[in-house]
Amino acid sequence: MTEFEWPADPEDNRQYCRLEQLNPGWWQQAAELISRKELVFPHMRIAADGIELPWWGKMVRVVPASRQIIPLEESRQLSYQEGLVILGLLKYASEHQSLPPAQGLVTAGHLKGGATFFRGPHVMASVLIARHYARDGRAFLDRGLALGGMPSSYGEFGVEFSWFPGLSWIVALWEEDDEFEARAEYLFDRNIETLFALDVVWALGNVVARKIMGST
Fold it and tell me: Three-state SS string across the chain, please?
């Protein structure tokens, strides 16, 4: 068996590419949230035709009727995997009355089923971050802070992104040296497996890598 070859862009590692290809049931659940006017996540709000929420520090509007996710503060097209994560959040909000309690930090392999799922083409894209910033941890940290992250004590260089209270993601980087290759790890609260299916966790890892590597 040959080793899996990662694409240059981590978000190219998927089958679908258009937001309208996202799960129709999830779009329907988002539409039902609008009619119920009950939102679990802080900072979400109901708009005339959709739900507005922060995404990487900028507001987006989810419009179920047209199956669009529209950035309100910038001119760009959201990727399929960004849409997958955003709709995943709304799916959770439509099914639960509150966010899951914190359970402690873990890596992807410690999630239920994670040791099997996160292999081959589903390896976390943190491997690309390690390659990209192998000898430039300072640039990695600067990029993470520019994206709205906060310094983290994990790794030689660490940055933590927090999209909502209760949903945060740490990227820890160790630079390469004469003995060891560069390494990067994703860490997040175990409760993420309550919020998202494993394929959505993986998609979020791709989004994080793409942004940190400056692809979007």
Answer: CCCCCCCCCHHHCCCCCCHHHCCHHHHHHHHHHHHHCCCCCCCCEECCCCEEEEECCEEEEEEHHHCEEEECCCCCCCCHHHHHHHHHHHHHHHHCCCCCCCCCEECHHHCCCHHHHCCHHHCCCHHHHHHHCCCCHHHHHHHHHHCCCEEECCCCEEEEEEEECCEEEEEEEECCCCCCCCEEEEEEECCHHHHCCHHHHHHHHHHHHHHHCCCC
pTM as predicted: 0.90
User: Residue-wise pLDDT tens for the chain (216 aa)?
Assistant: 345 565 556 666 566 677 888 899 999 999 999 988 777 787 889 988 899 999 998 999 999 999 999 999 888 889 999 999 999 999 999 998 888 888 899 999 999 999 999 998 889 999 999 999 999 999 999 999 999 999 999 999 999 999 877 789 999 999 999 999 999 999 999 999 999 999 999 999 999 999 999 865
Sequence ranges of the domains in the chain: 16-95, 101-212
